[in-house]
User: Fold these one by one.
Assistant:
Number 1:
Amino acid sequence: MTWDKTQPMVSIKNVHKAFGDLKVLKGVSLDVMKGQVICIIGPSGSGKSTLIRCVNALNDIQEGSILVEGQEVNDPNLDKLELRKKVGMVFQQYNLFPHKTAIENVMMAPIRVLKQDKATAEATARKLIKKVRLEGKENAYPGELSGGQQQRVAIARSLAMNPDVILFDEVTAALDPETVGEVLRTIQDLAEEGMTCILVTHEMAFAREVADHIYFTDRGVIVEHGAPDTFFNNAQDERTKLFLSQIL
Amino acid sequence: MNNRPYKTDMPVLLTVKPMSGDKFNFKLKLWHVFPVLLFVLFYSTFGFADAGPAKSSVFETLVRWMPLLLKGFLFNLLISVLAMGVGTAVGATLGLGQISQSAWVRKFAWFVTQFFRNSPWLVLLFFAMFLLPFEVEIVGVKIPLPDWLKATIGLSLPVMANVSEIVRGAVKSLPSGQWEAAESLAYTRTQTLWLIILPQCVKRMLPPWMNLYSILTMATVLASIVGVSEVMTLTGQVLSSEGGRPELLAPFYSFVLLLFFAYCYPIARFTVHLEKRFAVIS
């Protein structure tokens, strides 16, 4: 199947997902165009993290279709490695490799997975560490970095694979309030450079500023979606209104 | 009463000053072995000075046989190192089998591990002694299997099973986020295991592994039951060649005990030290 840039880069259609008897996603559909930044918001347990974890096949789905650049993810013969080279992911708990330094964390996957030579990978890694404003921390181990710094290393690590789209799974939820800003700023830089981003977040002000489109999920379905201004000023659904009134 | 910190008409309510705890916090050091050893040797010489010209003193007898007993002890150490090596190599493979993606491999590895982990070491030793042939032929070359080698193989079986569990436990103890992060960076499963997971496990595995080694070292004396010329066997032979003098029993077996203690206790201390250090880092 060929894919061109006029089609959605990620196309989620009628996705159902259950953990045992617990239905987490009940028919979710959304499209993400190249260069778009979308934010998924909603109460805890509404299935938003599960949804983005399905995009890079960390979770499988029972029904529906997820196309990433035209490639079907819900396919038993899927080449997961090829998919994951295109789709980066940043986690709530950073998940840096604690036995490797910051720069090793960033350059290891390009060397081992993309088979880049060490010098190229290292040069790229240094640039990326500079980009996330961590110059001088190249040789620090994750345990020696603050949460915000670790999360920025994790973003650099994801960028090093040169992905087409990056999934951000509540990346500021585990951070101290004073370090949230530095991570959001890094993500904003990426958004402005045209990186396609799918964010699950609780940072409403940030979502409003950075997103091209907001999706509100509750109990496994998308309740409402729209451009940030319309969505925040003129929410239609009662559940959305209630959620926004609680959080804003 | 005047020197008490406070006065009261009811002395029962006075606080009791606890006895100094320092005296009782006795921590064993390696050098403590030597006073004990000297005491045993010295004590054993009393009362035998006038035992007649035919019998030498207990102390002299022990010193005379000491080189042989030490050689026997070195043999125990050789068996322990070899059994640990073989057990670790096979056990690590088995442990990885227990986390294999193939259900059959996983079940097989689990079964082997549980079987050998829940069998008495002595029974496994007997099995190895009587089931293994006295020589094996590999591509036309006959390789003899002496008793001590069979014993080594026998002892490596429980080690293998325990190492398998240590590996499985260490891998399972890592947070699943490490797997997910590696997966989402498109590492293959093999790469994830060897580059991300196992390097982090080494630290976690080292203390239990060393613990296992010291248990194994102490278990090498089981080989005496199947006739391997290790330190216990030699001690028995020495005692009978000395005519079975009952006053020799305690000094000789104390000496053997002390040899093992002097070897195993530092390992135990070092294990505790490692556990503390790693606990702080992770």
Number 2:
Amino acid sequence: MKHTAKKKSNFRKWEGFKIFLFTAPFLLLVFLFAYLPLFGWIHAFYDYHPRFRMFQAPFVGFQWFTLMFSTASWRRMLAEVMTNTFAMSFIGILTSWLPMAFAILLNEIHNVKYRRVVQTLTTIPNFISWVLVYSLAFSLLSSSGLINDLLMRFDIISRPIMFLHMGNGDHVWAAMWGLGTWKTLGWSAIIYMAAIAGIDQELYEAARVDGANRFRTIWHITIPGLIPTYMVLLLLSIAHFLNSGIESTYVFQNAFNLRRIQTLDLYVFNLGIGAASYSLATAIGMMKSFVSLVLLFTVNYISKLVRGESII
Amino acid sequence: MHDVKWIKQHRVGDKIFNISLYIFFALCAFVCFYPFYYLFINSISANDVSARGGVFLHPIGVHFTNYISMFMLEGLGNATFITLSRTVLGTLATLLGSTVLGFAFTQQKMWGRVFWYRWVIATMYFSAGLIPVYITYLHLGLINNFWVYILPAVIAPFNVILVKTYIESTPASLQEAAEIDGAGFLRIYATIILPISKPIIATVAIFAAVGQWNAFTDTLIFITDERLFPLQFMLYRFLTQSASLAQLIRASGGAPGIDMSILQYMQTPTSVRMTISVIVFTPVLFVYPFFQRFFVKGIMIGSVKG
């Protein structure tokens, strides 16, 4: 009896190991694509170039880290990039309530068909690439695009407005915010639409019996019902404060607006891949990774403190 | 009396509010959709008219030569092939990775289950950064290699969570019955897990496919070989380098059997840009409304996990 139990348990162990073997190739890929690159941080302490083999590049210690802060022009460059990153992320966070407002207002439309059509059409831009956003913007906003064409036709302006130069960079933040909002507003609202549908309908009925009008029910029932969802998303966006990505800014960058559009991510790309300063770009990216991780844990700590729930 | 007046005023206010809402959302929908419509009607209008910016309500001088000549443009057929291959293979890769791992992590008896689960999930929260990734891929031989589009897509920690959560929500009795019948991991995976997970597989597949179709930055970072450029990247090049585009247009003979010297049919940088854009966004535009419920389901399951 004991013997068979042991045999059974051994068999179970073997079965469990077999499952591991089936997943092993995938776990190896995780190592190759997510963990192995971490060793690449070592290049921040070398003067790396692809023509060198591993560890043949000269060791330079903290040279790159000190270089970033060594001269006034480097410091100005870094300050500029950080300003852009902070400004764009900050505008995004300031306006992060927009999808919630959009959902609340859309929910006030009682014609279900109309609501669904609006929802479908406003969600579509979320699913096209930034290249296509650029292409659409090019067709509509370039010097020969539709908007300029119409404005000139009606003699409202005499010379085309250079939307895509973004006022030689002065309006980049606003323009990028506008494009981003166009692209994601409808999609981001969907999660709030679902959250509204999840609010107990009896609350609304009770409020109506008490004589509350629709604005009061929105203020006292809908908005408080959505705040938890909003807080989670807000905390996540704070955790991703530095991760602006390069797709949107890369396609819209040009010689006129570069000074104001270059965020940290784009700078690392332009410096590392564009200008082949691999080691310096690694050093900058490394500092970004650390700050991002600290942000994530801080935000998670706040979430645990306030909501009693972890977000990661 | 006072009451009636109050209600009346109230109703008028309500009505105005309602009408403004309808108008506001009509405007939102218009702003979101018109750019696509504008490009489409221009791509089928006479090229000399559209180049002058004369088409904005309905197509003028409808013809489809732009689309026919697109296939004559050098490199575009290849880019379409690359885009299609990476969409199909990349989606399959994501599906394979997330279903095998998602299923394995539901099995209590898996060796080192908790450790390996964390091993995968932890990768959502850190990144080595662009350049270390680039250097690693360089050493792995993935630079200027088609597989750079596919292999990294195999691991999608978020999708692993989605599939795992979904499988855990299905009744375990089916699996148990199969186990008693002596079915192993792969048999259960193929005959039970895959069929019952159809809804979540559809959700993951659609997100993965749209992601692959739209991908642009991986080409930008890892690829310099023109034969590996997908449509999105070609479009970007056409948008920024009109010189190369003009050259390409001159090199192509245009559509067979059509006199390309007629202004109406003559390819211009504008017509090429618009036509490629339409080719690139049409699949997404058509796929999206039909699969909307899967997208919505995806975002909902995702939000539960946070």
Number 3:
Amino acid sequence: MEATAELKNIALTETHQTLGAKMVPFAGYLMPVSYEGINAEHETVRKGVGVFDVSHMGEFILKGPDALDLIQRVTSNDAAKLIDGKVQYSCLPNDAGGIVDDLLVYRIDEKTYMLVVNASNIDKDWDWIRKFNTANVEMHNISDQTSLLAVQGPKAIDALQPLTEMNLRGMGYYSFAKGKFAGVENVLVSATGYTGAGGFEVYVENANAKKVWDAIFESGKAFGIKPIGLGARDTLRLEMGFCLYGNDIDDTTSPIEAGLGWITKFTKEFTNSAEFKMQKEKGVALKLVGFEMIDRGIPRHGYEITNAAGEKIGHVTSGTQSPSLQKAIGMGYVRTEFAKEGTEIFIPIRDKQLKAKVSKLPFWKG
Amino acid sequence: MNFPDELKYTKEHEWVMVSGNIASVGITEFAQGELGDIVYVDINTQGQSLNAGDVFGTVEAVKTVSDLFMPLSGKIQELNKGLETNPESVNKDPYGNGWMVRIEMSNSSELEGLMNAADYRKMIGVNG
């Protein structure tokens, strides 16, 4: 593959290859997509503990007395609600009604924030935020120096707590701390994730990534810890109904349509906030819903959604066979009149029109 | 990886086992590995007569979907019903319980166009 030459490597590429990972190009990086198989990896995370290397994700540091103002201007959620050590899910709306990216906002201190963005959007987000940086907030893109390990699953706490004096057991969901971890200073550990299985995300400088990875696997051995690829990350997040940028949300989808009204707060002005406010009050024509297949078949990104008469009413944005539920599930946009739970919809797959029904998210309730 | 010598192979990563006028067909160990966990084998062509190269079904893995192509012209005589409930047999036992269809061949001279195990290994770049 000639494109491989242009791919960026993460710090632990060799480690993954030694572990037998299938590596694929993803968002410009060569990333582990699976090790022993998606279903087995999925189950490891739901029932035990697994480690994803998601070092392709981007991290920006915003620093200065006006950092919060800049974040408030570009993001949809209300970052003024954050206190030190808290994380918030948010999105960057564009001025055409869509979404530049979804992201996490970490408040490190009153004047210092970390934004965690999708790998495929690092440059786009950077340029977008910089456009609004009229008050000279210091911006640092630390993506290339930062490794991110997502240690997920009900036993993640048992694997990680012995490695640090930070109180992980007492750490609330969407909180974080920075400190010594596995003998390495300045590691940021947050009680976040993209799996619905509980656990932590560990941010560490590339130079210490191998040391931290090895310590986590040593400590997690007793709990059956395993490496997990991006394939299982996708099935896990879809069972939770979490949006994936590029699939379920993109430059053309409104956060209100996408069911992200809960991170769209009108306590302040931000990009396109007036339009979103109107959408919230008057309603939207399309809504992102979850659905499960009744007939046998697997929905995929890009398939049409129709009514019983075969007329197009929307399209599928994500779909898979759910390993935990043993049935085919998906998400997609449908006309609002079809968005109610239990509504019968149809997915044409190959030569058949297959029945599905709108269901409540998350699919997986633990 | 295992590619039994007694089988014939296609560019589309299917194997063919001939017994009299009947050809059993499945996908190779290499193909199942590339697809990953297989969750649904969708074949609705039983009883149909199809030409070599025609699509006779589809295999759905967790991440991907892939068409299945007729390695030879003929009539789909039998489907592997076991795959309805155990599609993972294609991963676990691609040359055994993972077989997909039995074809009644209409032109057995087409067999000459298929690869032997050594040529198939060469094509996918697996040595030994």
Number 4:
Amino acid sequence: MPPSPNITRALFCALPFEASPLIKAFELKKSDDKEGFTTFIGNNSALVVTGMGGIAASAATNFTMGRFPEVNTIYNIGICGARSEYKIGQLILPTKIIIEEPVSQYYPENLIGGELIRGTLGSFSAPVRAEIDSIDFYDMEGGFIFREGTRYLPPSRIILLKIVSDNLTQLPASKEFITSLIEAKFSELQEIIELQESSLFKMVNSLNKNEIVFLNELSLKMRLTKTQQRQLLSAAQELKVRGGDLRSLEAIKIPNFTDTNLRELWLYDALQILQRV
Amino acid sequence: MTPSRFYRESNFSQIFVERKARDYPLTQLVLRRFPKAHVVEIDRYQEVFNRSRQSWRDTKSAQKIILAEKTEPFLYPASDVIQGSQFGALFYTTPILNCLYDCDYCFLQGKFNSAHAVIFVNDDAFFKDALRQLEAGPFTLCPSYETDLLAFQSIVPWWQKWIKFGRANPKLTVELRTKSGVTSPFSVLEPASNIILSWSISPDDVSKEYEKGTPNHRSRIRAACHALEQGWNVRICFDPILAITGWQQIYGNFISEINSVLPLSKLFDIWVGTFRMNKEHLARIKSQRDDSDILFYPFETSNSVAHYRASLREEINDFFTERLKDAIPEEKLILW
């Protein structure tokens, strides 16, 4: 499997003609990876075409989160059926999700408000052709993507955005019509995605790659045990948040050889420096 | 330019209501207070509040209300981290979980999975349980331990309810701690000798940086003065004291200011406490946020509590004792 680029956003669509407007607008390229699900990547995003149904959606979510472990936000974008009071083309943000089988319910952690229609989304194993009490919107994937996504990310980072394509009684919509629905809502979808990602809390003082390499090199030179390495990393992280400089560790002389006593003495000195306030 | 159709969700724009809680008067009161909120019915509050892998910080950015019915226990014995456990039976109770304010040092970030405010609406059950406990003898109760009831007063009148309950039950001592600067809720009530209104105060250097959303110390002190003038028992809490750079000057100036505007000799007492937190709560907070230096201090740990090293604690306590000893009798200065 080729190394994954820095993918932080996963987009899931059930159908290729739901995905096509997003692939075009986000300038995504089809991945060469032959394993798993059809995936398009680019601009920190991976768009995965899951196929229809809960099993496919669950599998695609797990596959993608394993393939791109740096993903920190998941979107499920696609069409849904709706009760008769909702209009074709309306953009939906579910506030409750019910999965038909096995019966379970979930509550999205929505951070975005505005011109969005809210209600309960039911995710079913087959298309629903009649209204069900207490369910406003109907699809076959959203609940499963949410459920599986919460194995990896907080609920606040899994967003279901659905566009009403029918009121359950009509014949299935054409591919072109579905594509046109997504296209028509693209600017709104993009606005929501940008707002969502700017609303999330970000860690700002995590140790960067260079700092981790520096600490790992020190650990290796000093042959620190796993526990000692954790102590060093933890103290280094604390120093960084307090605004200190890890390079202060360079002031401690590294002995030519290491035995347990020297190692412990070195670590003691290192922790003294890192824990200075 | 077209105005944006979307925005970051504001606090309390969504309210979850437990099915069994929907008919309580307090539920109806809160729902009337937020007529535009999206109301979502749930089976149990834990479905939203306790679910795993939540981001406390994300949920704090769009805090929601959960209206729920509390089940037993209603009273919890106080832990060693709470001052006052030396004064006999001390319990806390939790009519609300979580707070309107966003203090960096707040243990609730590490205790709960989400920042949403759970408001329990079965007030009678709380009071019945407190009465049952009173049969075993007098005790002190802290209903604001996991929240700030006075700050919530405009949303739900739990603060006022505890005052009324306390007044009707003189064997009970009620301590209501707050960082709020509002005065109207207690201005309209008669003081009672068994109720202590307690303000946590910090210098502006601390509150601006580490107590987001709180009123400045002048508002809090004004409120405390007002309560004193009305005849309430008033406690001032310098808690938590943070060992930030220049703490001696910052807190020294602060004590001088307090001494000049607040008649300290008239206070019920003063509590002084340095930063401390259950070590597991602290570890959990540090795994979720790395934007606050005070949480990343090299603390010592004893009895599962992370705290400043003993010599620093002693230095801070001596500093406060020295500066307050002429203003208030020694027995009224309580140190942690």
